[in-house]
Amino acid sequence: MGIDRRKFLTIAGLTTLTTLGKTVLGSSPAGHDPIETGSQAVKRLAMAIDMQKCRQNEGCVECTKICHKIHNVPDIGNSKEEIKWIWKENFEAAFPNQHHDLLEDEIKNNQVVVLCNHCDDPPCVKVCPTQSTWKRESDGIVMMDMHRCIGCRYCVAGCPYGSRNFNFRDPRPFIKETNPEYPTRTKGVVEKCNFCAERLADGLLPACVDICPEKALIFGNINDPKSEIRQILKSRHSIRRKPILGTNPQIYYLV
Amino acid sequence: MLEKAITGDKRYWGWIAFVLMLIGTGAIAYLRQLDQGLTVTGLSRDVSWGFYIAQFTFLVGVAASAVMVVLPYYLHNFKAFSKLTILGEFLAVPSVIMCMLFIVVDMGQPFRVQNVMLYPSLNSPMFWDMMSLSGYLFLNVVIGYMVLSSEKKGIAPPKWIKPFIIISIPWAISIHTVTAFLYSGLAARPFWMTAVLAPRFLASAFAAGPALLILIIFLMRKLTRFDAGKEAIQKLAVIATYAMCINVFLVLMEVFTTFYSGMPEHMHHFEFLYVGLHGNNTLVPWMWLSSALAVVALVLLLTPKFRKKEVILGFACIAVFVSIWIDKGLGMIVAGFTPSQMGEVVDYWPTLNEFMVSIMVWGIGLLIMSLLYKIIFTVRGETKPALEAKEDKKELTVPSN
Amino acid sequence: MYDASKIILGILIFLVLATSPFWYSKATGQSDYLPDPVILTKDTPGKDVCVMPTDYMRSSHMDLLNDWRNSVVRDGERKFVSPNGHEYKKSLSNTCMDCHANKTEFCDKCHNYMAVDDQTCWSCHVEPKEEL
Questions:
Q1: Is B336–A157 a contact, with Cβ atoms under 8 angstroms apart?
Q2: Res. A37: pLDDT tops 70
Q3: A156, B127: Cβ pair inside 8 Å?
Q4: Chain A residues lying within 8 Å of B43, measured CB to CB
Q5: Is A53 within 8 Å of chain B by CB?
Q6: Is the pLDDT at B136 greater than 80, yes or no?
Q7: What is the pLDDT at residue B396?
């Protein structure tokens, strides 16, 4: 026998330590980290959506297309079992409390991009009976563990934004072109936007941010006062979906 | 003692065979659901819980209602319930088992159910619900078995069982409270997010449970030599009456708070239930039927003259049970999801497959209940052969009062 | 003992039936079969060796995969450095199956023999397309 279990664990432990050291020292081998941590110790990732820029390109669904393509999101073709990570909703549906009849037409009649709000106090995490969904301490992303999810859909009931999707059937036959680098899901688990955690690990921005032709999506560390997202939130009026519920959503809409 | 469940006459075995057939038919539907996923149900991304979770909620109430015979007997020494406590406990056992099964059949990945124990999440009411339900099951199995086996030997139950019985009383309250917390703690669902939900669940449970028990007593009186006695039945009727009054009162509290404050997010759910929303009237006739039955039941139960007539009491009990079943087993869960987070009304109605799976679970509950009740009546020597029963039936067609 | 002969005969029939699969595989020579997985490797430097020595992989690949799964999914720890200093991405589909692109000849052969249920992996993780 070349290597026993103890030896393997030692090696695995050492590997973890070295990579951890590298992360702390900031010399990630994957290259340049797109999100500067700044002076603040804790990174908190957030997104600002420029509704003005977004509505200039009315029929555009590039963010949805690229996201659903790289994450193997199925197109079930049935509104009851639909799976959506990022998509467009009517203003009234997304912001029921901000809506009134005399609102400017260009806001009232246009759609807004919605996705998981990666809440700072996520109700889905609070209710999950298996910790299959949790808020990542390192950057605040609300993650999903498809290996552990029992499909009880308590998180679907708990989410105030309709951002969580259940796989009512095997999604595979409904994926037109499978991306072999990313897993599909199996029937009976819940899924949602993961802020492209797999791309962030490779030093890339979320795919929707990257592809947006209007550059309407601004992504960054909200705890860094010098970050682009902080600067823009300082200078423009922004709203969030259902802030009254105390979930502290981290998707900001620039009016 | 347990072997009494596998001795019996043709009538008993015929019934068991019938229940097994129900379970078998339902099991085929469940296999189909396992194979194809929850797409075989009427559920959707907007109405993501439905009939299964509603049955679970209703049955937690039936299970908890055993406390309504246990409490008067053990805390107030109300002797008339001496023969009823085990009936209550052995009604709670199959009810809790059905609750658990309804949760399992609702899961997308039922083979991973052990994850709830492997990764205990103290912040999830679902974890606590699982703890309280399994604890309650354990208590009722132990108490029922010990008390009945002592009765068989003609001795008093062992002293150590008393603390278990006392604990089972608040525990019964806890199971339905935690079940209400599953819903009432969700800021996302205004229909459920009310402090009155747990009290309302308990009140409706303590009306529907005793009503069911009265109906069971009537049925058992025909099938066996068992007789609970007039005093016990009338006391149960009074309990059901008070509980039903409190239940209706709490519903009216909800209606006032919702409509006087006029908050649209709260009103929409009630509108969906009682007048329809965005042209969707699916539950409207059901909810009005439930309300009408509640009124009829209250009139019959609150009038002593009617309540004391057993035929009328029987009708009143059916009215209470059906009214609360519609409210909890059809309306409560679906209304929480309608309208959806995006303000849409998405149609939901259980599919045939969903209904068949529910029949499997109800069947398993009926089977367990039949076996347990058979043990009780055989131990007490209260069974009677089929022939006698038939003769009794003839007599009973003549108004017995 | 009443009906001793009938009981003994019954036991005998039961034993023969219960052990019949073993006799069957012995008689047909199936019991001599041992799976022989085809191990593909790549010539690309750094990819010509596995993440761990072959002996370890043969006995404990499932532990390694479980460990990878937990550290990637739960801790966001995606890098693995092998004993000989190469760095790998912890990924079944992208690292393991990049070399061992022959699931049917590599995974399935032993898993079928051992009746290992690996559907839990492949119902989500995408297997490489094999040229037939």
A1: yes
A2: no
A3: no
A4: 168
A5: no
A6: yes
A7: 44
- List the domain range (segments joined by +) for residue A52: 30-254
- Do the chains contact at B340 and A154, CB–CB below 8 Å? no
Sign of CA dihedral B392, B370, B382, B218: negative
In this structure, are residues B38 and B32 in contact, taking their beta carbons and an 8 Å threshold? no
pLDDT value, residue A2: 43
Stretch B383-398: mean pLDDT: 50
CATH number at residue B297: 1.20.1630.10
Question: Higher confidence at residue B25 or residue A3?
Answer: B25
pLDDT tens profile C42-74: 777 666 788 898 889 989 999 999 999 999 999
Res A9: pLDDT:
52
Would you call C41 an interface residue with chain A, using a CB distance cutoff of 8 Å?
no
Q: Note every long-range contact of A15-24, with CB atoms under 8 Å and residues 24 or more positions apart, other chains counting.
A: A15/C79, A15/C80, A15/C81, A16/C71, A16/C77, A18/C81, A19/C77, A19/C79, A19/C81
Kindly state whether residue B400 falls inside one of the protein's structural domains: no
**Distance between CA A236 and CA A234 in Å, rounded?**
6
Question: Quick check: B37 and A129 CB within 8 A?
Answer: no
Q: Which pair of structure tokens corresponds to residue A13? A: 């432990």
* A52 CB neighbour count, 10 Å cutoff: 15
pLDDT (0 to 100) of residue B385: 61
How far off is chain A from C105, nearest CA to CA, in Å? 19
Place of tokens 């029987």: B314
Structure tokens, A76: 């079930």
Summarize pLDDT for B258-286 with one digit per residue, the tens.
Answer: 999 999 999 999 999 999 999 899 999 99
Contact B52, B105 (CB under 8 A): yes
Question: Is A129 part of any domain?
Answer: yes
How confident is residue A6, by pLDDT bands cut at 50, 70 and 90? Answer: low
Q: How far is A97 from chain B (nearest CA, A)?
A: 9
8 A C-beta contact, residue A158 and residue B336: no
Place of tokens 């705890």: A223
**Which of the four pLDDT bands, split at 50, 70 and 90, describes residue B386?**
low
Note whether residue A7 is domain-resident. no
CATH number at residue A51: 3.30.70.20
**With the CA atoms of A11, A14, A18 and A19 taken in that order, what torsion angle do they form, in degrees rounded to the nearest 10?**
70
Take residue A175 and report the two structure tokens written for it: 């994926």
Amino acid at position B50, single letter: G
- B13-33 pLDDT tens trace: 999 999 999 999 999 999 999
Chain B interface includes A172 (CB < 8 A): no
Residues A7-26: tens digit of each pLDDT: 555 555 554 544 444 444 44
Quote the radius of gyration of chain B (alpha carbons, Å). 21
- Count of structural domains within chain A: 1
CB A141, CB A195: distance < 8 Å? yes
- Work out the minimum CA distance from A181 to partner chain C, whole angstroms: 6
Are C76 and A136 a contacting pair at CB < 8 A? yes
Asked whether residue A11 is domain-assigned, the answer is no
pLDDT of residue B260: 96
Handedness of CA A113, A243, A134, A141 (dihedral sign): positive
In a domain, B27, yes or no: no
pLDDT digits (tens, 9 = 90+) for C23-34: 898 888 877 888
What pLDDT, on a 0 to 100 scale, did the predictor assign at position A108?
A: 86
Structurally, how many domains does chain B consist of? 1
Q: Name every residue whose Cβ is closer than 8 Å to that of residue C103 and which is 6 or more positions away in sequence.
A: C97, C122, C127, C128, C130
User: Which of helix, strand or coil describes residue A227?
Assistant: coil
**Residue A22: closest C-alpha in chain C:** C79
Chain A residues whose CB is inside 8 A of the C53 CB are 2-3
Residue B343 lies in a domain: yes
Q: Is B170 within a domain?
A: yes
Show the domain range for B61: 42-215+228-350
Chains touching C by CB (3 or more pairs below 8 Å): A
